Amino acid sequence: MIDLHIHxxxxxxxQSFGLPAGEALRFAVLNGYxxxxxxxxxxxxxxxxxxxxxxxxxxxxxxxxxxxxLGIELVHIPPALLPLAVDNARQAGAGLVLxxxxxxxECVEEGTNFAAIEAGADILAHPGLIDEQAAAYAxxxxxxxxxxxxPRHAFANAHIINMAERFGCNLVPxxxxxxxREILPPALRDRLYQGAGLTREGAIxxxxxxxxxxxxxxxxxxxxxx
Length: 226
Prior knowledge:
The protein is α/β, with parallel strands linked by helices and about 230 residues long. About 40% of the residues lie in helices and about 15% in strands. The protein is built from eight helices and seven strands, in the order βαβαβαβαβαβαβαα. The radius of gyration is 16 Å and the shape is globular.
């Protein structure tokens, strides 16, 4: 099982959102996960906290028997600045670039979903009531839509599943977990997705998409390091 959206904090920023990387990995392993995206949350255009985490995460995941990739979630960036923000995140070394989508429970600026897709983010996180134009564009651009099991983001999951099926978008799972309790056992997470209308076949495809994206981005990161 894979979760591509677990929030971690940076030790140099003790007030930051999320879990220490080692703790996040340990509880992911205890819950039966084989791969995770460890995600720093950022509302800035530069990302100096990424670099110090790379070696730590590589070592922790290697000895913890779990695959992990370091990424960033861009939060409340004005849509016009998202191309720059996505590029900067990649240049800073983010293996996964997520953009906080237009979740129903947060005041995300209208147009963020489409701008994130146009900017080439890897994942549009919790995109809320994504419209037909954005869903079709996500399918065309290969930007994955997150199906969230976080209570604050899951209200639109049935709509997201429907749009993904209609337009051929890739779905990937994400918890937005920032505490131990939010790293859910896979069986519970699967029931939550099933309750939103995801079929067993859809759940299998979602895990396959997540696995392919994880491996693709990990291979990309290895090439960049070389």
